[in-house]
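TICKET #2291
ISSUE: user wants both folds in one file
ATTACHMENT 1:
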Amino acid sequence: MSVATVQPAVPTSDLEQARADLDARGYCVIPGVLSKAEVAALKARLGEQARGEDARGVGFHDGGPARTNQRVWMLMNKGRVFRDLMLHPAVDSLMGYLLGPDFLVSSFTANVAGPGGEPMALHTDQGYVGFWTPVPVVANIAWMLDDFTDANGGTRLVPGSHLNAEATPRSSAYAPDKPANMPTLEDTIGAEGPAGSILCFDGRIWHGTGANRTDKPRQALLSYHCRPFVRQQENFVLGLDPAIRAAERPALLNRLGFATWAGLGRVESPRPATPLFEATGAVGALAPDGSLLDPAQA
């Protein structure tokens, strides 16, 4: 496979062109989605959180032996500014196009690529499926909080690889097999764009974090999305802070999986009311006379 077979996407603010790039190339870059003020607010909260997790001894680092890249997980619990972002119109426009109108947030995390970090192994975000699909079942948005350049580890992608069924991992395990003709780093291009841009990419495209060869970190947020029948990467029903869950907007909670879809996610009746908060209608263990039994003894 050669990157020359499919030309890289040109950053565009035209939504129709962006969707055409997603179809033909597997990704698009849209500049100016976030204002300078929005970028500043997101960077400030992310920086505080990342430093706080390191100070508490729970910071997560990868990127090779030097472990210069920091990941921040479960951003839904870590700031209203992050939760607001998942209701941004760009999410509906792009994820709705790729995954249908009832898509879910699968996970929302941050990736701070530090100087000297090694490139991530190439992979597809739906490699665990085990077979090629004619449409994506997952897709991603990288929200650029710093300029993305080839030098600072901007995401590397193989344009058009989402359409190559022969390069699809054939194992459903978490660490899928490597097809004989899988792409290499030589096949990739670096996604570039100014801070405030987004990189949207199909879950079937081969990609990976690049190596940061500069002396400054490169920060991005990664919102990973899935069709409503796919198990989410982050379990928001268990992991979302109860105080946040009690106060959050139904539109966001639905997007996090606190709603039924086509009979999936129900707790009792096949057609229940949307269980936004808790399963108040669940039937417990009953004796023949209808009285409740001790669940531990049933």
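ATTACHMENT 2:
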Amino acid sequence: MNAPARPATGPVLVTGGAGFIGCNLADRLASDGHEVIVFDALARSGVERNLAWLKARHGSRITAVTADVRDARAVSEAARDAKAVFHFAAQVAVTTSLADPVEDFEVNVRGALNVLEAVRSRGRGAPVIFASTNKVYGDLADVALELSGDAYRPQDGRLRVRGVSEARPLDFHTPYGCSKGAADQYVLDYARSFGVPTCVLRMSCIYGPRQMGTEDQGWVAHFLIRALEGEPISIYGDGRQVRDILNVADAVEAYVAAWRRIDRVSGQAFNLGGGPQNAVSLVQLIGYIEDLTHQKIELSFSDWRAGDQRYYVSDPSAARRELQLPEPLDWRRGVAALAEWLASERAARASARRRAEALS
């Protein structure tokens, strides 16, 4: 099938553009000279600060649309003249999906379809690059693990060295896994069925500046925030579960590269993470945070949560090869930089509160 003519001019649409990764991408795109439409429902606490930051940095290059991706008309209007679409807007927490699977479906599946249809129906092939998740591979319960100190690792040496590749069969667990996995597959199929140039990036754990981490999502920032506030940290499971973590600047580079090379990678999905060299268990990360903050962190432990992976480390070799990505930032340097950013943000907010109280 021949792809429709691609728009050469116009803004770039970033759905969920006030969120953590979305605002970092919007910042990069605006810095590169693009006009950017930030489409966001502003439903998550703190994201309005990200939007204000973008506007302060880039002025008229940032156009804000406060709307929900479930609103097909609003999505269609925002995408009307877009030369590219990056789709980040989503319900992002497994726990929330278990509490309200219908809303999870509506946001993640219906929202993705609204984006795809907005591009397809206008007959102009703006690339759609979609933020997917490692949860499309399920809980990896079939992977035999062993304990190595304070971290799980696969018994299979090849998996230990390379990580989980895109050849891994899809296996959706929890409503969140199902909704993100369904959207993932719709995005790929719109390239096959309709010639819409699309690419899917299945992310592992992304961290970095402007991440407002919570217990349910953004755990690297959440751990740092709790440590800086002198508060205890709750761990689900035994804390030896392992993830590969990737700095947001490296993630943004991958998204920009996917757009740049869309003619080569359309219809493909790539695992995006820090890889085995940036793999760390929860308790290992907490130990490093204790070193950074020079204080002991109180921990509490609860049962494993539904769909939790004891081990997930991406094999990012395909993404690095096809998207021509540089080596990622070492996790220790990245986490130290995030700790500095969070501390400065905390100090700035405290100063602003003191000024407001003095004027009241």
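RESOLUTION: both attachments delivered.
EXTRA DETAIL ON ATTACHMENT 2: Residues 331-359 form the longest helix (29 residues).
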